[in-house]
Structures are given as structure tokens and as C-alpha cells.
Design a protein that fits this description.
By secondary structure, the chain is α+β, with helices and mostly antiparallel strands. Helices cover 26% and strands 32% of the residues. It has helices spanning 2-19, 32-39, 103-113, 170-180; strands spanning 45-47, 50-52, 58-61, 74-77, 86-91, 122-128, 131-142, 145-155, 160-167, 184-185. Strands 3-4-5-9-8-7-6 form a seven-stranded antiparallel sheet, sandwiched between helices. Strands 1-2-10 form a three-stranded antiparallel sheet, with no helix packed on it. The longest helix is centred in the N-terminal third of the chain and has 18 residues, at 2-19.
Amino acid sequence: MNMKKIAAALLAACLVLSCSACGDGETNDSNPEKQAAVENMKSPLTIGKLTIDIPLNFYVKIDSDGTGTDKMPVVYMDQYPNRQDNITFTMTGKKQNPEYYTATAIDNIMSTMLDDYSGVTSYVQGECWGYTTVKAKYKFHFEEKDRLQTQYYIFTDDDMYLLTFTAEDEAVDSQFEQAITTIVIQ
């Protein structure tokens, strides 16, 4: 039961980060911090033992401690906030049990949090990068737009990485699918 609460909290944190807009409608030109971030896009991004190439035209939003690489960095498209395509990264800080991350469990959590949630449209549990991995894909509606969301749960020996990819259209979703192929875990 405690693991289910942890899973729900992780998913809620990712959704808040991936769905909410924290800008006030400023453009790249009027926001010096964002303009500097876009000009200095870094790829690859390393979080803990995981490294991933960031898609073109995406940048790391500086987080609370100013590093851009703590346990929950957010990567936005350079057209943010007009487009809210993004990638969020979460690390649990301790080993998790993959048995708790079923399609039904994900459905139960997401259906209470998202408008017009489609239910898990694709679910695969297997081994990737040498670890047990769950991939769940679904659609939902947020702020008058349909969204595609793909989550990868990667269960390492001493941590769980949760990568959440939120796309406004299939083109960006396919950029995310390409980025997934660049993951390396050391």
C-alpha cells in the first residue's frame, strides 16, 4: 500500500510539472533567462546514472537549486509557453518494485488527475538498458489541447527513473521516441 502512495505522489509531481505553465506569456525575445537557456541548449543531459540526448529546440529549465540537473529537471520546447511540449525527469532515490506499476495502477491514478484521459493505450513491461522497464502511453486533454504522454519507468538496482514525455502533436512525440533511443545508463 505504501508503494502505491509513493507511485501516486511521483506521478502527481510529474503531471504538475509537465502540464502546468509557469510562464506569463513572455516570448524568447522578452525573457533574457529563457533566451540564454535556448542559446545554451545542452545535449546530452545527465541525471544520476542516466544520460539522454535532448531533442533539437528543447532546453533545460533551471531548477530550484540553479543547476538544471537535480532530481527533477524539466526540458521545454523553445516555443514555451505557447507550446507546452516537455520532458520531466524524476528519480525516486530508492529502489522501487516494478510489480506496482501495472497498466491498471497507472489508469487508476491518471483517470483521477487528467481531463478526458484515454486510458493506457500502450503498455509494455520488459528489459531495456539492462533493467526492468515499463513504458505506458496515453492521451488526455489539458487547457483546450489534446496531449500525448509517454512515461518510461526504469528500475535500476538502487533507484527508479521516471521520464515523462508530453507532446502536443505526433511530430514532437516522434522526436521524443528518437530521444529515447539515445538513453545510456552507467
